[in-house]
Recover the amino acids of this structure.
C-alpha cells in the first residue's frame, strides 16, 4: 500500500465527469522509488529517477459532480483553518458519521483504495473500536477522500491499483525532455 494525497481536483458538469487526482505523499514516493519495478525504465528513456515531485505517479479517479463539490468545499475550508464541524452550514451525512464515531468511541484508522475494475475504484475504511476490535467497511473512493480530510487519517492505494490505473505525468515528461535537450546543447558548446 502507498500513502496518497489529493494532488488536484477537476470539477466537471453534468456532461463532463469530475476527476480527483491522487499522488503518493513525499515519504511514500521515496519508498516507491527504492522498490524494484516490473517495468524498469529503459536506459535511453528520458524519465529521471531523481526523486523529483513531478515524477510521482498520478492516479485519476472519476467522481460525480456532487461528490466533487463536497470534496472541493472540504479542501477549501480546511485550508482556511475551519474544523471538521465547521465545514458545512447544515448537517451532512459526513457530520452524522463524525458524530457516530465520536459517540461510539470508534475511529477510522485509515482508508484504502484496494481495487479497480475498468474505471470503477473500490475502497474501504478500516475501523477500530475502543474494545480493540477492528473491521472494514466498503466506501466510495470520493467519500474516503472527504473523510480522510475531515478526520485527518491516511488514504492508501494498493500497489496493483497504482500500476494498473496510473496515467503518465505528461507535463513532467515534457519538462524532462526539455531539460535533457538543454543539457545536450550545453555539452555540445563545451566540445
Amino acid at each position: 500500500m502507498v500513502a496518497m494525497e489529493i494532488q488536484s481536483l477537476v470539477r466537471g458538469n453534468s456532461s463532463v465527469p469530475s476527476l480527483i487526482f491522487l499522488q503518493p505523499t513525499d515519504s511514500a514516493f521515496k519508498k516507491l522509488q527504492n522498490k524494484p519495478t516490473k517495468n524498469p525504465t529503459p536506459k535511453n528513456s528520458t524519465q529521471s529517477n531523481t526523486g523529483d515531485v513531478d515524477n510521482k505517479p498520478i492516479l485519476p479517479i472519476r467522481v460525480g459532480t456532487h461528490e466533487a463539490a463536497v470534496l472541493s468545499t472540504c479542501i477549501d475550508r480546511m485550508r482556511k483553518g475551519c474544523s471538521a464541524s465547521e465545514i458545512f452550514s447544515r448537517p451532512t451525512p459526513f457530520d452524522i458519521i463524525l458524530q457516530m464515531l465520536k459517540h461510539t468511541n470508534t475511529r477510522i484508522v485509515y482508508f484504502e483504495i484496494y481495487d479497480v475494475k475498468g474505471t470503477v475504484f473500490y475502497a474501504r475504511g478500516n475501523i477500530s473500536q475502543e474494545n480493540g476490535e477492528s473491521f472494514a467497511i466498503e466506501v466510495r473512493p470520493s467519500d474516503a477522500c472527504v473523510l480522510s480530510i475531515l478526520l485527518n487519517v491516511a488514504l492508501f492505494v494498493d500497489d496493483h491499483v497504482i500500476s494498473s490505473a496510473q496515467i503518465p505525468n505528461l507535463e513532467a515528461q515534457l519538462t524532462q525532455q526539455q531539460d535533457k535537450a538543454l543539457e545536450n546543447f550545453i555539452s555540445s558548446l563545451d566540445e
Q: What stands out?
A: The first helix runs from residue 26 to 33.
